[in-house]
Each structure stands twice: as structure tokens, then as C-alpha cells.
Write a structure and sequence with these properties.
By secondary structure, this protein is mainly alpha-helical. It has one domain. 52% of the residues lie in helices and 0% in strands. The chain is globular and about 45 Å long. It starts with 25 loop residues before the first helix and ends with a helix.
Length: 118
């Protein structure tokens, strides 16, 4: 049996600082989690996303929000994994992009969002 510890903290820290240096942004961590979770489901380690949600002590809705990051164009996913922390860039403001089917539309909107927050 393999056990994974997943930390989904609720609330905001008292002082919000952007990490410096080689720090990994929260959105990069969520993107990496989505990729990892998809692998766990595909290889049968966990039964489904609902099982992941139970194990991670999060709602199925939150798990769905995280997993929808996989609907982004592959190049956007890659950029998220390696993007330095950007103030204001988070999973919530990527939701409208995830809903778009056309990857070119996603790329245009992602460019707008990352330029607005930079």
C-alpha cells in the first residue's frame, strides 16, 4: 500500500509574501498534483477522483477544480509548471480558460491573464 500526504490548507496566511529564488508557485504545485493524480487513477492505484478527494480530505468539487487544469492546452500546462510565482495568478482565475475548448482561445486568454497579473 502506498500512502500520500496531501496538504490543502484553508484560509490565508497572516502575511502574504511571494516566494523568491527557485520557489515553486502554488499554481505549479496544483498543476503537478493534477498530473500526478491522473497517473494514479490511470494506473489503478486509486479508483477514481472521488477516492482521491476522500483520501485528500477535500470535496469532490475541489478535486474537480484541480483536475480540470488537465483540460488546458499542453503548452499552457508546461508554462504553469515552470512559471515563476506571479501575484494574483491562481486556479480560480484560470477557470474561465479551462472552460474553453479551443486551445488557441485558451492561449489568447492565458496571455491576457498573465499580462494583467504580471
Amino acid at each position: 500500500m502506498i500512502t500520500y500526504t496531501i496538504d490543502f490548507r484553508v484560509g490565508k496566511p497572516a502575511v502574504r509574501q511571494l516566494p523568491t529564488g527557485d520557489a515553486i508557485s502554488r499554481i505549479a504545485r496544483l498543476m503537478a498534483l493534477a498530473i500526478r493524480f491522473e497517473g494514479l487513477v490511470n494506473d489503478g492505484t486509486v479508483r477514481d477522483y472521488a477516492d482521491l478527494a476522500r483520501r485528500g480530505h477535500v470535496t469532490r468539487a475541489r478535486m474537480t477544480q484541480i483536475m480540470k487544469l488537465l483540460h488546458l492546452a499542453p503548452d499552457i500546462q508546461e508554462r504553469l509548471l515552470f512559471l515563476p510565482p506571479i501575484e494574483g495568478l491562481n486556479e480560480r482565475n484560470l477557470r474561465p480558460i479551462v472552460r474553453l475548448i479551443d486551445w488557441d482561445d485558451q492561449r489568447r486568454m492565458f496571455h491576457e491573464v498573465t499580462n494583467l497579473t504580471a
